[in-house]
Design a protein that fits this description.
Elements (H helix, E strand, L loop, with lengths): L5 H18 L14 H11 L7 H8 L12 E2 L5 H5 L6 H9 L8 H4 L5 H7 L3 E2 L4
Parallel strand pairs: 1-2
Helix pairs in contact: 1-2
Length: 135
């Protein structure tokens, strides 16, 4: 059986100190500050096996709902959109909207970058909001 190194023990103790410090903010019915719970023992056991226990911030990230595209299903067609509709897309101003209209028709939306109509960074921001439909 492998013995935990000093670094692993330090990480476990720091993790426990952080958990204990956060327990003062718990509602009534939770363990008192300084008491060890089975979660603490579980975290210490994981750390000695080479795994770190989850931190409160990582738990919040894991529980956060997945971000969805609010405009999904409402894709803007590059071949038929007006200048005002194009300008409504964040990152597309008057100059880019004129270049997009001048470069029509498009077979694929990535032609905006291939033809140097817009830069790659701008394309990455808008690619989920546009489509190039064929007539």
């Amino acid at each position: 059986m492998r013995h935990p190194c000093r670094f692993e023990l330090l990480l476990v103790s720091l993790a426990l100190v952080g958990v204990i410090a956060c327990e003062g903010e718990k509602p009534a019915g939770q363990p008192a500050v300084g008491t060890r719970t089975s979660a603490h023992a579980e975290g210490a056991a994981q750390a000695t096996k080479g795994q770190l226990p989850p931190t409160p911030s990582s738990l919040r990230l894991a529980e956060a709902p997945a971000q969805t595209n609010p405009r999904k299903g409402k894709l803007l067609d590059l071949n038929s959109a007006s200048g005002d509709e194009l300008k409504a897309i964040p990152g597309i101003g008057d100059a880019y909207s004129k270049k997009i209209i001048k470069g029509r028709p498009y077979k694929r939306k990535d032609e905006l970058v291939q033809r140097n109509i817009i830069p790659q960074g701008t394309y990455e921001k808008i690619k989920d909001r546009i489509i190039a439909r064929q007539k």
